[in-house]
Amino acid sequence: MPSVCLVIGMAGCGKTSLMQRVNAYLHSREAPPYVINLDPAVTNLPYDANVDIRDTVNYKAVMKEYNLGPNGAILTAANLFATRFDQVVNLCERRAKEIDHIFVDTPGQIEIFTWSASGAIVSETFASAFPTCILYVMDTVRSQDPQCFMSNMLQAVSILYKFRLPMVLVFNKIDVVRHETQAEWMTDFEKFHAVLDENPTFASDLSRSMSLVLDEFYKHLRVAGVSAMTGEGMEGLFEQIERSRKEYLAEYLPELNAKKEENRVREETRRAEALEKLRRDAEDGGGGGGGGRGETVVMDMKRDVKREGSGGEEGEEGGEEDDEDA
Ligand SMILES: Nc1nc2c(ncn2[C@@H]2O[C@H](COP(=O)(O)OP(=O)(O)OP(=O)(O)O)[C@@H](O)[C@H]2O)c(=O)[nH]1
């Protein structure tokens, strides 16, 4: 089964460039991925997508038809596309034997994917069919600012706990700034606090408190440093994707199966209870003699049974006579 990687990140962090890079990298290894574009507003796609939302939904037409601004139209286009997403997964399933990776590019405005119906549908549909992970892409250059770093971490934590899928933190643009310092901030609070102390503000106090809370969250993350521009770090990224796949199979899949089983049991119990209620209603109605609906239904059923056995005669007496004849 191929691994699915959902590429998510703040605007301009380099998602589309990374998609292009991994696509080229895997083509050079003769293992081309299956590539999906979910950004309806992208004008130039620098890679060939196997599935492109723009072929199905015209976001400018959505803007006009629903009288929306650009972001509202992107959100609506993504939601409209999500209603057909089972068809996309069917396409992937048909190609599953030939491919090792499925990469999914998401809209530039992060919340359009992460906090909308489309994000939930896409991630859940994929996660119930294939090992799925999130590549949370960060702009390493912008994240040099500790508060921008913290804001990225808060986005990542909310996505991790919302989707509950394995996540790789991908520090992009390491051709400009190396990511090691920021990776260290995740393990050594004193270093992070020292940088915050250089410019004390209310916001830096908040970042300091948050960094202590996020300790537990950092333990669930894998880190990879890459440059979508030069191609550096691709091997490391694919190692982390492989580890995420193992985590999915070891932890997520059993949880998913348990959830499915729980839903099946709940549905069976609900059905049995509904049937029991129906039976009790029928009994109450039949025994009460009040001429309620239950009684009428039961009486009608009795007559029908007799009629079947009697070869067409109606009523109790006719039925009994027929029985004697037989
Ligand atoms: N130096 C450098 N620049 C990069 C790298 N990756 C992306 N960029 C540049 O960053 C800018 C944004 O890249 P995109 O790939 O469009 O980013 P995106 O996240 O897809 O953008 P939206 O979907 O519009 O939010 C472009 O100018 C890229 O050339 C990188 O690894 N190194």
Automatic annotation (TrEMBL):
Subunit note: Binds to RNA polymerase II.
Pfam families reported in the protein's UniProt record: ATP_bind_1
Composition skew (Basic and acidic residues), residue ranges: 300-310
GO molecular function, one term: GTP binding
GO CC terms: cytoplasm; nucleus
Lineage: Eukaryota, Viridiplantae, Chlorophyta, Mamiellophyceae, Mamiellales
Classification via Gene3D superfamilies: P-loop containing nucleotide triphosphate hydrolases (3.40.50.300)
Coarse class of the protein's main subcellular location: cytoplasm
EC class name: hydrolase
Domain of life: Eukaryota
Compartments, record wording: Cytoplasm; Nucleus
Function, as annotated: Small GTPase required for proper nuclear import of RNA polymerase II (RNAPII). May act at an RNAP assembly step prior to nuclear import.
Feature: compositional bias, Acidic residues: 311-326
UniProt keyword annotations, A-Z: Coiled coil, Cytoplasm, GTP-binding, Hydrolase, Nucleotide-binding, Nucleus
Enzyme Commission (EC) number: 3.6.5.-
Compositionally biased region (Gly residues): 285-294
Protein name according to UniProt: GPN-loop GTPase
Residue span of region Disordered: 276-326
